[in-house]
Structure formats: structure tokens, C-alpha cells
Write a structure and sequence with these properties.
- 54% of the residues lie in helices and 5% in strands.
- The protein has 516 residues and is mostly helical.
- It has two domains: 196 residues, Fumarase C, Chain B, domain 1 (Orthogonal Bundle); 273 residues, Fumarase/aspartase (Central domain) (Fumarase C, Chain A, domain 2, Up-down Bundle), CATH 1.20.200.
- The strands form four sheets. A three-stranded antiparallel sheet has the order 4-6-7.
- The radius of gyration is 26 Å and the shape is elongated.
- The chain starts with a strand and ends with a helix.
Length: 516
């Protein structure tokens, strides 16, 4: 199989495949088993549609209007209408990678054979993804229950050749024009199909998967920056000894301590405690870095467990079960995903907080153990990194606000039929913002710590080889080293891009080998 092609089968998908489609533009193909399962489920739906008994979503209205039986002549209109009426999003556009993840995950559920959608509709979904057509989806419109209704409706609208979408050239045009330009025939929805395209946790799940990928990089990056700060502060690496972490056996803690110890291997800076009053112990932000970073790592592990379960799920209502049963259910409720999205926002805020405390310590001449005030070239004439820490502190404060959980809220909808909702989409949106801010916070600590390490080296001390690799790579990425004051924002932006794209981890792993 081509490494840039993802085959959609009947048993779900993986996080790696979601990222490949969403971010890397991987092509999507339906497996033969998926096409067979789609056809079989469709036969079940068509058989039920021919019977006089009402079946939700097939021959009835939706939500609070489910009590109305819809005659055969109005059922195609019913499916079109649910897409049009539910495409009611407002606000800024959602990012392209999020929409692609959402579309791919809905295709994954459709291909499971539990939704009753025809094979040709699933193929059109794949064709739209492969053409690089991205529906315009708006920030607001999902309560995270009955699925991410408005976001998914905007995607279904594109399949119908209605509404607006972004082409592979980045320009927004009418969806009908884009489909025609790529030889894609708009779908004409029939019984059950409109509902099946809307009723899933795909938006919040897609954002969870993307956030987990980003946070994996950021937690390893934060282990590295913590090690650099420890080194620059002439701290002791003895607190990283494996036997200390073995007696409190949280897996993430041990992994973070090991990462830091490997980064510091060969350092001539650690353990000196060069003060008039020698230190017995380093400050908590330095000494407890493995405990804080490690607890966050274990939270990521829990997040991956929830994501993997959801990636294996077929979320729809009603669903087609083996033996030809079609049953209503509540699997569209986003609570499992919403809770972990909020949990991740909490640990992101705390990681940002401890990074900022180490940065502040590096800049304070009373606590930095011989470094110049604010790491300035000529303190007083130069302000050094004083305001970089202000920016970092503002980002930390914002992370704390974003850590307030969305999933504890619920606003009833649909005339009290949908009287408890998850707010999972909102949890996902704020986590996405938090992850971006966390990358900036880690980047500021990196910028300060590398400058401090260089100043120690200039004073005749020997940093660890991995530390020097981080410094060299960051400078090559456009973030300059010590010297007189200059326009600082471009340097911080370069550091942010370097961290976000995984450049720090790559540079250090060239010395240490793979880090956890």
C-alpha cells in the first residue's frame, strides 16, 4: 500500500491515519469489505423504509419532531432539509486540518456498515477529501450531543453541491463549482442518509487526536527545556536518578526523568551549586519537573486510550446492527471525549505554569546563581528578556482561563428532547487554543535557557553535548543568541515555530537517541 494512502475498512481507524489525512493530505480509499458492509446495511434500511411502522430517521422527523411519520414521497426532501437547516454555524472558519479530520472520521463511521448510507455516498466523501475540497465550517454551532451537528452539516452540504468550500488552491468558492471542477457528482440523499452524515462526535474527536499529536511533541520538548534550565541554573541532576523514580512508579514521571538525564549527560554545569550559601536542594520548578511533566504524560496516555476507543466506534443514531435490527441509542453523546479534552487543558495549563517559573528564575539575578539580570548584555542599558517573560506570563494566565472545563455545562435544546449535552466541541476548541499557547510558553523557556547556557559556556563552563545541539539548531532556525537588545518578537516567533514543528526534539535526539 502507498504510504500516502489510507484505506478505510469496517473496524475503525488509527490516530496516525487521522493525522495523515488531516495534515499531510493522504489519499483515502474504501476497502472492498467496507463497500460490502455499506451495501448490506443499506438493504436493511431500504427494507425498513418499505414497512408501515415508523423508524426514527428513516420515516420520521428528528429530535423533538420524531413523532411525525413522513410519507415516502417526502423522505428525500426530509434528508435534504435536515442538512440545510442544521448547517447553521456562525463565527470564524474552522481550520482546514480540523475539517479534514472531521470529514475523514465521519467517513470512517459510515464505512463501518452501521449507518445505512449507500456506498456511492461514502465514495463521494472520499472523492471530496482526495480532491482537497474543504467545506466552510464555522466556530459555533455544536453542543457536542446528537453529534457535532452544525459542523457536520456544513460538510454534508458540500456533498450535496450546496454552500461554500475551500479549494486546493485555498480560495473559497461555491461548492457546486468545486465539485464540477473535479468531476464529482453531488449526492442526492435518500432515507437515513442526511441524519447519518450529521450524527457523530467526529469534530471533537478529530481535534482530540490532533491535540494529542501536538502535546506529545510539547511534553518531550518541555523535558528538554527543563533540563536546559536546570543546567543553566547549575542545578543537580541527582534528583533524576532512576531509583528515585522507581519508588514512585508513575510511568510518565520515570520517562520524563530519563529524558532529562539523557539530555544532561556529559554536562560540566550540573551539581556545582556555586553560591556564597551553597544550595542543599533546587527549587521546586527545577527539582519537581519530572513529577509535573510526568503527570501530564500519564494524562496523555489516558487521552490516547479514550481516543483509540472512539476511533474504533461507529457513532450514529439509529444504528444498523447485525441481524437486520435498527435501534435508537445515545452513543452520539460526547461526554467521554469532552471530559478528556478538559483534562488535557488542565495539564497544559500546569505545564505552562512550571515552564514560566523556571524562565523567571533564569532572569532574576537573585535566584539565577551568577547569570546577568534578565540575561541582558549590559543590564540597565539593555532589558534583555524581561518582556519575553511578560509575554510568557500572559500566555500562562490565558491557559488558566482555558483550563476551566466546558463539559460541566449543559444547555437543553430541541424543545427539551435533548436536555443534557456534552459541550465537547467547545472543550476541543479551547484545548486547541491552549496547545498553541503552550508551544509559545515552551519556546520562551527554550529561548531563555539556551541564552543562559551560552553565557555559561562563554564563562568557561562546558554544557552537555545535547544542550549544545539544541542551541545550534535554534540559532540555525533564526532565533539569535546573547547580545545587545534587538527587536525580540521575530526571535520568539522563530523559537515557537522551531518547537511546534518538532525541531527541538529532532536536534536533541541526534545526540541522545530517541526520547520518550
Amino acid at each position: 500500500m502507498d504510504m500516502h494512502t489510507v484505506v478505510v475498512g469496517t473496524s475503525g481507524t488509527t490516530a496516525e491515519e487521522v493525522v495523515a489525512v488531516a495534515r499531510e493530505g493522504a489519499r483515502v480509499e474504501l476497502s472492498a469489505a467496507a463497500v460490502e458492509a455499506l451495501a448490506a446495511a443499506r438493504e436493511t434500511v431500504e427494507a425498513l423504509a418499505a414497512k408501515p411502522e415508523p423508524v426514527y430517521g428513516v420515516s420520521t422527523g428528528f429530535g423533538a419532531l420524531a413523532s411525525r411519520h413522513i410519507s415516502p414521497g417526502l423522505r428525500a426532501q426530509l434528508q435534504r432539509n435536515i442538512v440545510r437547516s442544521h448547517a447553521a454555524g456562525m463565527g470564524p472558519r474552522v481550520e482546514r486540518e480540523v475539517v479534514r479530520a472531521l470529514m475523514f472520521l465521519r467517513l470512517k463511521t459510515v464505512a463501518s456498515g452501521h449507518t445505512g448510507v449507500r456506498p456511492e455516498v461514502a465514495q463521494t466523501m472520499a472523492d471530496v477529501l482526495n480532491a482537497g475540497i474543504t467545506p466552510v465550517v464555522h466556530e459555533y454551532g455544536s453542543l457536542g450531543c446528537s453529534g457535532d451537528l452544525a459542523p457536520l452539516s456544513h460538510c454534508a452540504l458540500t456533498l450535496m453541491g450546496e454552500g461554500d468550500a475551500e479549494g486546493p488552491d485555498g480560495l473559497v468558492r461555491p461548492a457546486a463549482e468545486l465539485l464540477a471542477a473535479h468531476g464529482i457528482t453531488p449526492v442526492e440523499l435518500v432515507e437515513k442518509e442526511g441524519l447519518a452524515l450529521l450524527n457523530g462526535t467526529d469534530g471533537m474527536l478529530g481535534m482530540l487526536v490532533l491535540a494529542l499529536a501536538d502535546l506529545k511533541n510539547l511534553y518531550t520538548s518541555a523535558d528538554i527545556t527543563a533540563a536546559l534550565s536546570l543546567e543553566a541554573l547549575l542545578g543537580t541532576e541527582k534528583v533524576l536518578a532512576p531509583e528515585l523514580h522507581a519508588i514512585r512508579p508513575h510511568p510518565g514521571q520515570g520517562a520524563s526523568a530519563d529524558n532529562m538525564l539523557r539530555v544532561l549527560a556529559g554536562s560540566g554545569l550540573t551539581g556545582h551549586h556555586q553560591d556564597d550559601l551553597p544550595r542543599v536542594q533546587d527549587a521546586y520548578s527545577v527539582r519537581c519537573a519530572p513529577q509535573v511533566n510526568g503527570a501530564g504524560r500519564d494524562t496523555l496516555t489516558h487521552g490516547r486510550l479514550v481516543a483509540d476507543r472512539e476511533l474504533a466506534a461507529a457513532v450514529d443514531n439509529p444504528v444498523v446492527l447485525p441481524g437486520g435490527r435498527v435501534e435508537s441509542n445515545g452513543n452520539f453523546h460526547g461526554a467521554p471525549v469532552a471530559y478528556v479534552l478538559d483534562f488535557l487543558a488542565i495539564v497544559a495549563a500546569d505545564l505552562g505554569s512550571i515552564c514560566e517559573r523556571r524562565t523567571d528564575r533564569l532572569l532574576d539575578k537573585n535566584r539565577s546563581h551568577g547569570l546577568p539580570p534578565f540575561l541582558a548584555d549590559d543590564a540597565g542599558v539593555d532589558s534583555g528578556l524581561m518582556i519575553a517573560q511578560y509575554t510568557q506570563a500572559a500566555l500562562v494566565s490565558e491557559l488558566k482561563r482555558l483550563a476551566v472545563p466546558a463539559s460541566v455545562d449543559s444547555i437543553p435544546s430541541s424543545a427539551m428532547q435533548e436536555d443534557h449535552v456534552s459541550m465537547g466541541w467547545s472543550a476541543a476548541r479551547k484545548l486547541r487554543t491552549a496547545v498553541g499557547n503552550l508551544a509559545r510558553i515552551v519556546a520562551v523557556e527554550l529561548y531563555a535557557a539556551t541564552r543562559a547556557v551560552e553565557l555559561r559556556a562563554a564563562a568557561g563552563m562546558t554544557p552537555a553535548p545535547a544542550s549544545l545541539a539544541a542551541v545550534e539548531a535554534l540559532r540555525a532556525a533564526g532565533a539569535q543568541g546573547p547580545g545587545p537588545d534587538r527587536f525580540l518578537s521575530p526571535d520568539l516567533a522563530a523559537a515557537d515555530a522551531f518547537v511546534s514543528r518538532g525541531g527541538l526534539v529532532t536536534a536533541v535526539e541526534a545526540v541522545t537517541g530517541p526520547l520518550a
